[in-house]
């Protein structure tokens, strides 16, 4: 079976016109552009032989007609502010194109492909709202209290979008046997290694902390070194130790970031009274996260005891890693192999709807290269050939999944 | 000879009413409060037997009548915003009180005491404007181009204060044989060591740099550690090395400060693209300053070559140290000893008018304890007893200076 590249690329370019922002797209969840894009997507689903619904939180869910068993393929069509045209959107059109191809070239008796565009993956109001709603994870209080950065309430946006009272699309465990999501890598690895397809082993868990070091402001000329409570001196000791610990204790795939530092009062001639440091690390393995978390606690304990400053840590984000289904992963590797495309296993360092889906049914992701690793920016881009490759690998993997015994999937996550 | 403590403290408390700000004083150079304080000071000088002038930049200079030889004693009566009541003011009233005591109890044939309140030591417009003007160091362009933080031009303030066209007070090398300045320590050393009088060995020189580290912003989840240009990773290496180098290469009196750090973009999940670090160090010995400056250059050279970031340094302040006159210092130590007051030699970590004066005539400073080391704040305070001690030591030192041969001073700075 072959992807219709022209139809695939044509639909992707059409979708990019909703909220077009130079070479990118500005299409925040529930914005006019977002809702128009979702209506357009519904109509394309209908034309492609699917029965779409736009649900009560804005998800567009299309089921292939005349099937009782399906592989669900999708992602999200909302974007970050001034984002790229591929993040999320490509994965949704992949679903649409694979569904159409299967309907045209496959055997609907074996099953079909359902397609979904989840709402607000990017968290303008509530991160992964659509996928969490699809699996019944969203509490109504969450919807009542969520608002965007300008204070506009989510509940009001749902009403203004005309979604109030609509049914919620829900996962049907009898029907959907697997979830697949294609996505641009949003990083530099595939491009720099010249590999065409990345098969995601897992989505990293994240631990994020704000560490506060409180010393005392003093005149930097008249206060002897031995009498200072210098928050920056402690910061340097802590930062250097964390970089060393993370390097020694992490896996080869672990990433960490000390992304922000705020000093007060922040004057050249005043001993710094306070330093605030943001620390995060990511890994697909819970044990690694636990190990690094203990290292942070130990470093802080050491400095709190040995330095003249008060050193404290506050967790601000705690996301568990999500393992992708190994059997689905093998199917993706095999499909890439079948098409003569180089492929590699890799973690996803960013979050995706597949993270939510993997808690409820076998899920997998494939990545295609990002030019320059750029993403969440209008400069985000991927070569047409790579875009087509991704859809082709998904279609071939679906062929293997629907063509096999129902117990192809080990469900052994 | 004895100080009149009541008169001394009374005048100091009166001066503190000009620009009173809670327990402190807000009396910026050329403000209404500042000019009223200077007029009051002039009248107190007249009453005390001095001939005062308010000069063309706001200096108040009072010469003891009927003398041809003098010790000049003073400081400044302008303050930082919301500053303390002692910084500068105490040193000026010390001069006034010592001049009065000498006139009452001394021998005017040996000489007298002249008094000065320099203008704008704190640099609202031009740091040490008054003392630099007194020694002919100020160029007219400087006055024409200087303005305060709100953009108000110095020249306009001089005009509004009614000073335009007035004569400038100038140092008379035939008359003034020495400059003495009493000041609160503005630091914690005397208090913490229980010492009553500090005799200043020198005013520290300052080297201040802004160091810029430029890397590249990348997604902190999807960019492998080996592919990052992380400005904070380099910052930690640099900061740790500088703290070590300064500790190893400085003198016991050297102080250093990494007082501010600014990170951009400064997000927990973005690899830092840029770090800006402020570095300064202070010492009374030029050789130490040169050694530390070389260490900074070497650290930057090393990181520029070994890290993936661009690392650059820009000097922003370069003040040479000012040595105080050793013979005057000995006279101050001896005077403290005569009164049974504990005394110690110490550097001044902050700048003072004495720094300017020391370039032109033998100069010395004494410090009295600051409660809690606080200064440049309304909380600044010193015990009455310590205030009186400082004046008494100055008076006794003046007695020694004016009582001796004219060549008491070695001029061997």
The percentage of residues in β strands of chain A lies in: 15-25%
Characterize the quaternary organization of these chains: homodimer
The gyration radius over C-alpha positions of chain A equals 24 Å
Main sheet of chain A, how many strands, which sense, barrel? 9 strands, mixed
Shape of chain A: elongated
Task: Itemize the secondary structure elements and their pairings.
The structure is a homodimer of 413-residue chains.
Chain A: H1 5-15, E1 20-21, E2 24-25, H2 32-47, E3 50-54, E4 60-64, E5 70-76, H3 89-105, E6 112-118, H4 129-134, H5 140-145, H6 154-160, E7 176-184, H7 189-193, E8 197-203, E9 205-214, H8 231-249, E10 255-264, E11 274-283, H9 286-306, E12 310-319, E13 322-323, H10 326-338, E14 343-348, H11 353-357, E15 363-368, H12 384-403
Helix pairs in contact in A: 1-3, 3-12, 8-9, 10-12
């Amino acid at each position: 079976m072959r992807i219709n590249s022209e139809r695939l690329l044509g639909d992707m370019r059409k979708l990019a016109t909703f909220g077009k922002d130079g070479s990118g797209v500005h299409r925040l969840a529930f914005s006019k552009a977002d809702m128009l894009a979702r209506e357009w997507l519904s109509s394309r689903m209908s034309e492609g032989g699917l029965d779409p619904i736009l649900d009560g939180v804005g998800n567009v869910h299309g089921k292939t007609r005349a099937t009782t068993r399906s592989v669900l393929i999708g992602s999200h069509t909302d974007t970050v502010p001034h984002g790229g045209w591929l993040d999320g959107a490509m994965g949704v059109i992949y679903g649409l194109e694979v569904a159409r191809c299967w309907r045209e070239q496959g055997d609907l008796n074996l099953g079909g492909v359902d397609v979904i565009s989840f709402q607000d993956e990017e968290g303008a109001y509530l991160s992964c709202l659509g996928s969490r709603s699809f699996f019944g994870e969203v509490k109504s209080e969450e919807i009542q209290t969520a608002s965007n950065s300008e204070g506009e309430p989510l509940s009001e946006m749902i009403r203004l979008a005309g979604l109030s009272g609509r049914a919620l699309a829900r996962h049907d465990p009898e029907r959907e046997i697997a979830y697949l999501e294609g996505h641009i890598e949003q990083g530099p690895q595939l491009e720099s290694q010249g590999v065409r397809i990345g098969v995601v082993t897992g989505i990293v868990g994240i631990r994020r902390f704000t560490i506060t070091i409180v010393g005392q402001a003093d005149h930097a000329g008249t206060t002897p070194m031995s009498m200072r409570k210098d928050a920056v001196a402690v910061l340097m000791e802590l930062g250097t130790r964390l970089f060393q610990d993370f390097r020694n204790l992490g896996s080869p795939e672990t990433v960490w970031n000390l992304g922000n530092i705020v000093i007060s009062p922040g004057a050249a001639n005043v001993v710094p009274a306070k330093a605030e440091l943001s620390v995060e690390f990511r890994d697909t393995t819970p044990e690694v996260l636990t190990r690094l978390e203990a290292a942070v606690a130990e470093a802080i304990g050491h400095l709190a005891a040995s330095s003249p400053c008060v050193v404290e840590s506050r967790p601000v984000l705690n996301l568990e890693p999500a393992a992708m289904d190994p059997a689905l992963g093998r199917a993706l590797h095999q499909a890439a192999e079948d098409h003569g495309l180089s492929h590699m296993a890799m973690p996803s360092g960013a979050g995706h709807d597949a993270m939510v889906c993997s808690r409820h049914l076998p899920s997998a992701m494939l990545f295609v290269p990002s030019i320059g690793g750029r993403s969440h920016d209008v400069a985000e881009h991927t070569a047409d050939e790579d875009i087509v490759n991704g859809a082709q690998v998904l279609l071939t993997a679906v062929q293997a999944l629907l063509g096999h015994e129902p117990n192809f999937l080990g469900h052994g996550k």
